[in-house]
Structure formats: structure tokens, C-alpha cells
Amino acid sequence: MVGYPISHDELIALIDEHDQAQRRRKSWKERSSEALDKLLADPSKDVPSLWSEIKPVYAHLQAGKCGFCERLIGEDDVISNEQDIEHFRPKKAVNPWPPEASVGTDPLPADIPKSKKGGAGYLRLAFHESNYLVSCKTCNARFKANYFPIRSEGHQFEAEDPAPLLSQEKPYLIHPLDENDDDPETIVGFDGFLAVPVNQSTRTVAWKRAYVTIHFFGLNDPSRQDQLLLARARRLMFLGDRLREYEAAPEAGKAAAWSAVQREYSLKIDHAGCVRAAIRLYSAGKRDEVMRAVEAAKIFYLSKTGMPTDAPPPPGP
Ligand SMILES: [Zn+2]
Q1: What is the spatial distance between Cα 11 and Cα 4, in angstroms, rounded to a whole number?
Q2: 101-142 pLDDT, tens digit each
Q3: pLDDT class for 48, splitting at 50, 70, 90?
Q4: How far apart are CA 281 and CA 152, in angstroms?
Q5: Exposure check for the chain: N or C terminus, fewer CB within 10 A?
């Protein structure tokens, strides 16, 4: 998981820009404020899902990736059915977490921190721009649903602004666009292609946030093998090739070869959190550790995909 921090003012400016591009007579902010008034007057009434209108703003900010699992889902309107605009704090109900049965294939560990209270949901944040991000349907509909685990005693369902809730509620999940929240890369790290807490001490808040986030979204769950595990393994194998090219390059070619490694450090590529962690480790002098992880990724990848029996031979002389 990686962050795309943005200030509230910058976010509002981007939404205004989007409005202007759409030639709206009334701004999104004005229309969403009216919609919120209607919703509060009668919560049982259907309200327009105005958040969908500004989905491209978030999709672009997140480089077309799911804010939670880093799958590439694209930022094009044409494929917008792949992405959900996600209410970080659920608008209509919050259920206690964890659920009775694990959502993924693996059962949740017995020592997972619990968030036992639920309630009515954050109705007043239904149209708050800081309560949104784009996520894939698996993360949103299957794993996140109406859950929002927190460390503090109770949810602040009456809140009209999510900003103070970070310190008041102490959420376990990290909002990747919130400039005041932790940088996700300092919380959720990677051991090879598997997500692990960066902070290894189980007593720390950082460890608990990572532990919950990894299990909450099934970031290592076998049910997400194709979406996440194989995709991360593939990216590590590609990085391994770039690192070997760097190591084999003559002195005159080292800079260019390292540039090829650095391109893999981009936040814009899927599963950047995993690859960036490996590059940082390599730069810190842990070359053998990185290469062992690359090898493990390759073994895992080949064990799941294998060599096609109809693969053509190499070209003749
Ligand atoms: Zn996702």
C-alpha cells in the first residue's frame, strides 16, 4: 500500500477543475451540499450518488490503482465499472469487525485486534470529498463492506468533517490520500511478495494498523492469488532482471542501468509498495536478501503458472 497525499484545498481545486471541464452551472460542492441537506432531512430517501461524478479525480490521483490493494484498475471513464468510489467511513451503517466468518480463504488470526462496536454510519460524511477514494470491487464490496475498525471506544457518527476523526477514533485502516494520516509505506511493508508490518514490534500501534489492514483486505490471502500474489511476484521478477543488468553493466553503463531500476520505483505502477520496498532494501546494501526474495517470487510464480506445453522453440540460425 502506498500514499497519494493531498491537502483539502488541493482536492477542492481539482474537483472545481473537473466541474469546469464538465461545464457544470453549479459546482459539485454546492450540489453535494444540497443533496446532503435532503439526505439529513429524510435518511430513508434515495439521494443522487454525486460521488460517482468525481470518481475520475480520485482515479487520476491514485494513478488508476486501487487505494487499498494497489491493483491497476485504470482511470478511464470507459472502464469505470471496474472502480468503486469508496466511502472510507461507511455512510449508512458500520458493522462490528471482524465478521463471524473470514471473508478470505484463510481464517483470521486469533490475536487480530477487534472493533466490537457498530452503529448507524457516517451519514454526514456521505458527500464529504475527504471521505472518498477509489478502490477495486474486491476490496470495496467483498472485504470492506460496512466495516470500519477503530482503536478508540466509539465511532463519531455525528461528525461533519473527517479531519479530527483521525486522532479521535484512531482508525486501523489508513486513508492513502489523507496527508495527515501515516504514510502507508511506513506501516504496511513487504517481505518479498507478501505484505508484512514494517514495524515488527507487536506492541506498537503501527504494527496493529498493519496487521489489521493486511488481514482486513486479504492482502496475502490465497483467494487473491491472481489479483495480488502473482502480480507482485511478477513485478519482483522483472525488478530482479533489472538489478542483474545493473550488476553486469560495465562502469560506463551503470548509470543507465540504475535508471532502469529507478523507473520501477514509480508510484504509478501497480504494486509499487512491494517493489519500492525491495529497491530500498537493495540500496541499503541488502542485495542477497532482495535476490532471495526475487528467487522465491519466481519459484512461486512458476509453481502456479508453469511452462506452456505448446511454447515455440527458439528461432533457428
Ligand atoms: Zn483493491
Answers
A1: 11
A2: 889 999 999 999 999 889 999 999 999 999 999 999 999 999
A3: confident
A4: 34
A5: C
For ligand 1, an ion, list residues with CB under 5 A. Answer: 66, 68-69, 136, 139
Residue where a domain stops, chosen among 175, 201, 236: 175
Q: Are residues 160 and 31 in the same domain?
A: yes
* Cell numbers found for residue 292: 532471495
> How far is 146 from 99, CA to CA, in rounded Å?
10
CA distances from 73 to 30, 53, 138, 250, 281 (A): 30, 17, 11, 39, 28
Q: Are residues 157 and 242 in the same domain?
A: no
The CA distance from 298 to 305, in Å, is 10
Judge if 167 and 18 occupy the same domain. Answer: yes
The Cα 55–Cα 61 span in angstroms is 10
Q: What is the pLDDT of residues 140-186, one digit of tens each?
A: 999 999 999 999 989 999 999 999 999 999 999 999 999 999 999 99
Tell how far the Cα of 23 is from the centroid of ligand 1, in angstroms: 32
Q: Which three cell numbers stand for residue 110?
A: 486469533
- The pTM (predicted TM-score) of the whole model is 0.94
Residue 224 CA to ligand 1 center (angstroms) comes to 10
**Count of domains in the chain?**
2
